[in-house]
Amino acid sequence: FMGEQFGKDSIWETYLGKEVYHTDVNLQATLATKKIPMRSLMNLEVGTTIVFDTSPDDDITVTCQGVTVVKGNIGCVGENVAVLVNKVINKKMRDDS
């Protein structure tokens, strides 16, 4: 079992550091949120329009496991929806690790 000794184990720390960069993570891009009464939710039908208090130029929030990582603007690349990153959240925290 690696890392069993007391103190700093640089071999184990280096190995884990490299493996973290190869780990897949799920990102979630939230275009907008809105609170509506349950009655309105239950009455939704195909074709119903939900109006949000945002504009197409407003920031999109991208999260990973509920933690905001970046903010950006929605766009497209070819036929794919994309987010142009314009603000990195908690970059200092990631740089310190």
Architecture overview:
This protein is of the alpha+beta class. It has 3 helices and 4 strands; from the N terminus they run αβαβββα. β3 (67-77) and β4 (80-88) form a beta hairpin. The protein is elongated, with a radius of gyration of 20 Å. The two termini are 23 Å apart. The mean pLDDT is 85.
Q: Give, in spatial order, the strands making up the sheet with the most strands.
A: 1-2-3-4
Element-level helix/strand string: HEHEEEH
Tally of extended strands?
A: 4
Mean pLDDT: 85
Q: Any idea what the radius of gyration is?
A: 20 Å
Q: Can you count the helices?
A: 3
- Shape from CA axes? elongated
Low-confidence stretches: none
Class per helix and strand makeup: alpha+beta
Through-space gap between termini: 23 Å
Oligomer: single chain
| Beta-strand residue percentage | 25-35%
In helices, the fraction of residues equals 10-25%
Main sheet overview: 4 strands, antiparallel
List the topology elements:
Layout: H1 10-20, E1 28-30, H2 38-42, E2 60-64, E3 67-77, E4 80-88, H3 91-96
Antiparallel strand pairs: 1-2, 2-3, 3-4
